[in-house]
Amino acid sequence: MTEPATVAIDGNLDRATTQGLWATLRGRIQFWVSIVLLAILAVIAAIPGVISGFFGESDPRACDLLDSNRPPGPGHPFGTDVQGCDVLANVLFGTRTSLFIGLATTVMCLVIAIALGTLAGYLGKWVDALIARSADIVLGFPFLLGAIIVLNTAPDRSPLLLSAVLAFFSWPTFARLIRSSVKEVREREFVQAAHAMGFSQIRVVLSHVLPNSLAPTLAIAATMVGGVIGAEATLTFLGVGLVPPTISWGVQLSTAQSYFQLAPNTVVFPSIFLTITVISLIMLGDALRDALDPRGRS
Amino acid sequence: MIRFVSRRLLELVIVFFGVTFVIYCAVFVLPGDPIAALGGERPLPESVQQQLRTQYGLDLPLWQQYLNYLGGLAHGDLGTTFTGQSVSEQMASRWPTTITLALTAWTLTVVISIALGLAAGLRQGSVVDRTVLLGTIIAESVPIFVMGITAQYIFGINLGWTPIAGVADGWPRAYILPALIIAIYGLAGVSRLMRGSVVDTMQSDFVRTLKAKGMSRRNIVGVHVMRNAAAPVVNVLAIQLGGLLGGTVVIEAIFNLNGVGQLLYKAIQDQQGTLVVGVATTLVFIFLITNVIVDVVTSVLDPRIRND
Question: Which chain A residues have a beta carbon less than 8 Å from that of B280?
Fold first, then answer.
């Protein structure tokens, strides 16, 4: 094992730490496996039609009802679904939707969490109390149930709306994390020095406090992308997530569930893609967290 | 202790009002007209719509509607469905199934994750430890409904070990597979925490002293390591109750168990808005109250928590 990145515990991402982190990550199979898988998925999400066309049908919406629920065969490597649409094309196009929702949710969530967490940690007093209570309220909802209540009444459930709802129910965990590291960094000498030099509050926060408080957050963010993708599929499966004509693994699976015995291929392939995506993101997050916090490693 | 409990209750009250307000806004303030939607493709006559609005109080100002809603909740009234049945009555007959399922799942989570955590933690760095770690990562990654339909297919349809769906076979046969899936899903967090706690305790000074005094390994693990792990594990189990409640919805829908979760699922499918909100709200309240109870229990187990 190479030298652990001990400095990173307090969230300080200077050059030496980054190198130490990299050295730790480089030696981990878990890290490389997830990076390679995610790279492949990213390519699929970028050009699903081209890849799918290479194996047969390139259009997920070109369906032939006469070819309903066929097992895998020539022209349709993953078979066809109940509408006679190519399962492979749908799975590949679904990658785009899932990655979009995962990333969009995480970005929205981080923006809210960084803003509120920094305000709470930096200003303290009543701002801190107000944000802490709001976080308590949001955390009062079990994850899926909160989303079910809100999405149930939403008239038009687009991927973006789904992301916004999922972000709304997931910011508190991050905000708390950022708040505590901002609070800690705030007291350090270099921040006090920046104040003493007469920099404005905003400048101190943006260029001194924040960059030094973000490291632990990024590790959890990777895990979160995975969790969100799973949550989208689950919500869609329950009937409060995405709806056709949006193409997603959740939509495919909720349709295919009724035909499991008749056409197992329509369930198996989207499930495999979904699971691999979530596993690689969670493994990546796990590797990052481990590298950042040497105390937690085996 | 009294101070801790009362502070916790005060927090509960604040969260309660916040949560009800969010639910209320989500349901009644967001766009979308439930009365207009009632008629489906063919709109109801304006006079009928107007009468229904008055009947359900939808023509009152917002603050008054919110107060009515809170007043109803105070009497345990979760509203009526648009077909006129009481939401609480709809739920009443379904609790036994859900409680049985949840308790079975929770017990399985506790037993399996403590066993895994001990096995991994006592042999830190070994093959067992790594297998457990990898296994828990995979278990927490597979979405619960994928695990559900796959297990249903393999064990119910192909192997015929468990009933495919329904509760006709009673406990444990009808419940074991669904409960196991919910348990597997919650396993990762608890077993890792248990492992960490075991590793920490085994390396601590007092355990070294106990070893030096000649206490058997069995007693050290059974009494001291287990006790030290108890507080954080109970705490995480409580946090996971949220996941458990969400999990029962998915699993009851897949295995067609006639519990509260399935009621929620059916209500979503039939677009019974008030029923969805009533059931989900109840589950949220259960979650909130259990969290308070568990906080008190943990503070008894580990007095340091009280002084936070």
Answer: 145, 148-149, 152
Q: By the 8 A CB rule, do A113 and B252 touch?
A: no
- Between B202 and B168, name the one with better pLDDT: B202
Residue recorded with tokens 């992301």: A163
Cα(A294)–Cα(A3) distance, integer angstroms: 10
How many angstroms separate the CA of residue A227 from the nearest CA in chain B?
A: 8
Q: How far is CA A241 from CA A157, A237, B188, B299, in A?
A: 7, 7, 26, 39
How many other β-carbons are positioned within 10 Å of the β-carbon of residue B30? 11
Hey, what are B154's tokens?
A: 């393999």
Distances A276 to A16, A40, B57, B148, B171 between C-alpha atoms, Å? 33, 11, 49, 17, 34
Dist CA B284 CA A288 (whole Å): 33
End-to-end CA gap in chain B: 12
Under 8 Å between Cβ of B146 and A231: no
User: If pLDDT is split at 50, 70 and 90, which confidence band does A26 have?
Assistant: confident
Q: Which amino acid is at A169?
A: F
Backbone dihedral angles phi then psi of residue A122, each to the nearest 5 degrees: -85, -45
pLDDT digits (tens, 9 = 90+) for B48-86: 777 877 776 767 777 777 787 778 777 777 777 766 777
Name residue, tokens 């799975």: A91
Closest CA–CA distance from residue A278 to any residue of chain B (Å):
6
* Spatial separation of the C-alpha atoms in residues A113 and A167, rounded to whole Å: 10
Number of H helices, E strands in chain A: 13, 0
Contacts of B127 (CB under 8 A, 6+ apart): none
> Could you give the 3-state DSSP secondary structure of residue A260?
coil
Q: What does the pLDDT read at residue A3?
A: 34
Packed helices B144-151 and B173-202: angle between N→C axes, nearest 10 degrees: 130
Structure tokens at B143: 């979405």
Q: Is B163 exposed, middle or buried (0-12, 13-18, 19+ CB in 10 A)?
A: buried
Structure tokens at A22: 């990299």
CB A29 within 8 A of CB A287: no
DSSP structure class, residue A67: G
Give the number of other Cβ atoms within 10 Å of residue A184's Cβ.
Answer: 15
DSSP 8-state symbol, A248? -
Residues 6 or more apart whose Cβ sits within 8 Å of residue B27: A149, A153, B273, B277
Say how far apart CA A112 and CA A170 lie, in whole Å: 10
What ranges in chain B are assigned the alpha helix state H?
A: 2-24, 34-38, 46-55, 62-74, 87-92, 95-122, 127-141, 144-151, 173-202, 205-212, 217-219, 226-255, 260-269, 273-301
Which chain B residue has the Cα nearest residue A281? B141
Give yes or no for a contact between B177 and B162, defined as CB atoms under 8 angstroms apart.
yes
* ipTM entry: 0.78
For the cut 50, the answer to whether the pLDDT of residue A86 exceeds it is yes
Enumerate residues 12 to 31 of chain B having a beta carbon within 8 A of any beta carbon in chain A.
14-16, 18-19, 22-23, 26-27, 30-31
